[in-house]
């Protein structure tokens, strides 16, 4: 049985649960609501694969929900991984009787082909956001790629892919830090899903004068290929002891206490996870279609390339293993799950 997902996505913005809140969005990995425009696929590297992930665009103007692409039949039930309580990855269970959501006027229904895992997915499962989370049981996941099979009547423009949450997190953190052309930046965790995009955005979109990033020994070449001027091996060097200081430090690994020692006076420190030490700050991502539209040009031109972990894609049946791997902190770029159909 295919996997399907739907979710309410307003025409303007949607608050996403990174790092401290969750929306009223409960995607299920079978059909999901978003837009679709296909793009070309892959270029590979030994340390992480760099490739374009399919994008889809959909629009609707009729007064009723319409089918965009033909499928033999949209089933009433689907398979989905769910958890009934907060805790470790082994709480996830495969449920073959999850109801396919009804498509509302501001939603689209996607037949999912693949999905990307984000740290927020396991943090949500661990109960980090349960004060504001939707009721259990929960189907995890936010980023999907697939085929739109239904579009609500109020959907106008909408984009989706395997990297929206990560790229919007990367972009908004840079914007909120006041980063701009001619400034320098240090990214902690430059080989991760968000960090790898911060490097590219800082260099190719914001016009950074100097980009430095940390990673383990085997991933330094990847950092340089993405645009880092200085690749720091955190297993051999302490970045906070460098004589060079930076206008912005983007901490994607939870080392804010050290990060503030590497920033210039009056500089900014973006802290995605862990305890926040002033002048570090944390923010809630706001999903805005205009941002994806702007960044899409750079993606299509090949200036921004999503990095996919070489251990993937994990099959749908191995979702627990995929989460366990992501939570180990050893992933390079995005962890992909496929085999939904």
TrEMBL record:
Keywords: NAD, Oxidoreductase. The keyword Mitochondrion does not apply. Coiled coil: none annotated. Signal peptide: none annotated. Pfam families: ADH_N, ADH_zinc_N_2. Residues 26-48 are annotated as: Disordered. GO terms for molecular function: oxidoreductase activity, acting on the CH-CH group of donors, NAD or NADP as acceptor; zinc ion binding. SUPFAM superfamilies: GroES-like, NAD(P)-binding Rossmann-fold domains. Residues 87-337 form the Enoyl reductase (ER) domain. This is Enoyl reductase (ER) domain-containing protein. It comes from Ensete ventricosum (Abyssinian banana).
């Amino acid at each position: 049985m295919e996997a399907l997902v739907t979710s309410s996505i307003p025409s303007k913005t949607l608050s996403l649960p990174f790092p401290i809140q969750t929306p009223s969005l409960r995607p299920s990995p079978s059909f999901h609501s978003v837009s679709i425009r296909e793009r070309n696929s892959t270029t590979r590297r030994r340390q992480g694969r760099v490739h374009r992930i399919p994008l889809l665009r959909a629009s609707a103007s009729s007064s009723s929900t319409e089918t965009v692409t033909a499928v033999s039949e949209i089933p009433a039930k689907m398979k989905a991984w769910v958890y009934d309580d907060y805790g470790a990855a082994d709480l996830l269970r495969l449920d073959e009787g999850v109801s396919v959501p009804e498509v509302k006027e501001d939603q689209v229904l996607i037949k999912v082909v693949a999905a990307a895992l984000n740290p927020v997915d396991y943090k949500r499962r661990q109960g980090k956001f349960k004060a504001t989370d939707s009721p259990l049981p929960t189907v995890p996941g936010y980023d999907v790629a697939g085929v739109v099979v239904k579009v609500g009547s109020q959907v106008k423009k909408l984009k989706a892919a395997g990297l929206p949450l990560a790229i919007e997190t990367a972009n908004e953190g840079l914007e909120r830090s006041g980063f701009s052309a001619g400034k320098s930046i240090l990214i902690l965790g430059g080989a991760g899903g968000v960090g790898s995009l911060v490097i590219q955005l800082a260099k190719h979109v914001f016009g950074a004068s100097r980009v430095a990033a940390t990673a383990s020994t085997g991933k330094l070449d990847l950092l340089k290929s993405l645009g880092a001027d200085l690749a720091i091996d955190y297993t051999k060097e302490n970045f906070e002891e460098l004589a060079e200081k930076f206008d912005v430090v983007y901490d994607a690994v939870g080392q804010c206490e050290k990060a503030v020692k590497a920033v210039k006076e009056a500089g900014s420190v973006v802290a995605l996870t862990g305890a926040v030490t002033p002048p570090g700050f944390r923010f809630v991502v706001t999903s805005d279609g205009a941002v994806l539209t702007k960044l899409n040009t750079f993606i299509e031109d090949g200036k921004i390339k999503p990095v996919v972990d070489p251990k993937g894609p994990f099959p749908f049946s191995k979702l627990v293993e995929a989460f366990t791997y992501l939570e180990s902190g050893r992933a390079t770029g995005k962890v992909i799950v496929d085999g939904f159909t």
